[in-house]
Design goal:
Strand order of the largest sheet: 1-2-3-4-5-6-7-10
Bound molecules: zinc ion
Distance between the termini: 9 Å
Number of helices: 9
Radius of gyration: 17 Å
Structural class: alpha/beta
Amino acid sequence: MRIGAHVDPTDPLAEATARAADAVQFFLSDPQGWKSPQPRADAAALIGSDVDVYVHAPYVINVATGNNRIRIPSRKLLLAHAKAAAAIGAKGLVVHGGHVNAGDDPSTGFDNWRKALSYAAESGGFGLPVLIENTAGGENACARRLDALARLWDALGDQEVGFCLDTCHAHAGGEELLGLVDRVKAITGRIDLVHANNSKDGFGSGRDRHDNLSSGTIDPDLLLAVIRAADAPVIVETPGGVEGQGNDIAFLRRQLDGETGAR
Ligand SMILES: [Zn+2]
């Protein structure tokens, strides 16, 4: 099982070494901004590295919204990040499921997702798997609760898209972790990546505050059960930098070792 962390984008491979990580995830631009990603000087090193690379799209992207002035730039920015992520050999681009505004028909959000994928396909394709991530908050989210996720996947039809399961978001979003992987896979058929995070907040709180794996409100054994069942690469997006994330990665290796034959 490949295990890594979300790291600062300046020198991801050094961050991986510092954490003994098999994988890294990082942003290609300010996650709160609309800037296009720039070519990276370390592209060849990232492509040639044994470390698996994942890219997280900016948080501002919301391809589901009914607001044209957000939705249209979101489509373009998602495609630009996908192409930039593919150019550094990334295995996937993670993007949040997005939401419609209060009062808007949720079905328009699912349909806008379908249109965003069609736009990308007509523009030469993403060039790598795009992984829709479940989110923690909001009453109009496309990928917070599984009933919405099922409607989203229905709307996407046979368009190719992957799924990233965040354990903090599921718990805070109000989905029980027990048996969650089976319930997700019944909808998506796949889990491409797990974001393994504990939660500072309670079940169904709708708040998105990650905690280290052995802290927080989720029983660590339940986190481990989700990770085992998902059988996908794992990224921790936990606090504490090299020490905090390094401890979380070591914890996972200790707990999962022997089952996977990992180092
Ligand atoms: Zn996440």
